[in-house]
Amino acid sequence: MEVRHLEVEVRTEANIAVLDMKGEINGFAEEAMNAAYAEAEAGDPGTILLNFERVDYINSTGIALIVGLLARARAARRSLLACNLSEHYVEIFNITRLSDFMSVFPDEKTAVGEAMES
Amino acid sequence: MTDPKPARAGADLGRTLADFSVPSEPGNERLAMQTVAATASRLGVDGQDLERLKTAVGETTMNAMEHGNGYGSGVPVEIQVLVSHGDLLVRITDEGSGPPPREDGDEPDLEAKLEGMQKARGWGLFLIKSMVDEIEITGDEGHHTVELLVHLETEGGK
């Protein structure tokens, strides 16, 4: 079956780097995610926001990649946030406890507002 | 993927609704997810219950392809969907040898993973168990089988 490889674009909103992800977060996504994260880190933002609006599939390998990004954020004392997760993946973030370590927001506007107030 | 075989009356465990296989190649868990979801939706499984079932099937199929079949594209993962006594059963079989994985394997510890004390992977079995009502893992010399059970009478899933 043809896999929809992950595409990630990085943009900046104030001191927040936003990673707009599109496609599937699975074992094939590692290079794209790490490259985008490195690009985001280069600007030394206080917060990095993962936008899942156009992500249609996350498997356990994808969860491991997100865990890796979270570890990097924590090591650099950066906040890592998530927005636009579907209800199902909000549940997965909860049961894996990812949501204990990275705040999950319903949309980008709410996430950015919260980050700017922090 | 082999075309799903027509439903047949099972003499042992209810009615088989789908019986198919997928080659053990990364990404093919999506085929398994789609086919099982299409079958389950005809039984009224929908919404979040359907998403949970899809995740469980996807993760189980991935484990079968990777750990059971070593991602050998010529080695298929066999999948059956059955309904019996108000339960939906999904049976996923690989050609792994040796002891099957334990159902009560160690739970992933996110804090340990963040501290680098556990590898970042290892979420599959945990997700599977979280997404369905029951799971049973069996094995013999040439196969491992994981059976996922969803109670349909209680609107399926957790």
Protein architecture, described:
- The complex is a heterodimer of chains A (118) and B (158).
- Chain A is 44% helix and 31% strand.
- By secondary structure, chain A is an alpha/beta fold.
- In chain B, strands 1-2-3-4-6-5 form a 6-stranded antiparallel sheet, with helices on one face.
- The model of chain B is unreliable at 6-12 (pLDDT under 50).
- The radius of gyration of chain B is 15 Å and the shape is globular.
- At the A-B interface, helix 2, helix 3 and helix 4 of A face helix 1, helix 2, helix 3 and helix 4 of B.
Name the poorly predicted regions of chain A: none
Computed CA radius of gyration of chain B, to the nearest angstrom: 15 Å
Low-pLDDT windows of residues of chain B: 6-12
Q: Reading side by side through the largest sheet of chain A, how are the strands ordered?
A: 1-2-3-4-5
- Structure classification of chain A: alpha/beta
Radius of gyration of chain A: 13 Å
Largest sheet of chain A: 5 strands, mixed
What is the arithmetic mean of pLDDT of chain A? 95
- Total of helices of chain A: 5
Structural shape of chain B: globular
The helix content of chain B is 25-40%
Question: Roughly how much helix do the residues of chain A carry, as a percent range?
Answer: 40-55%
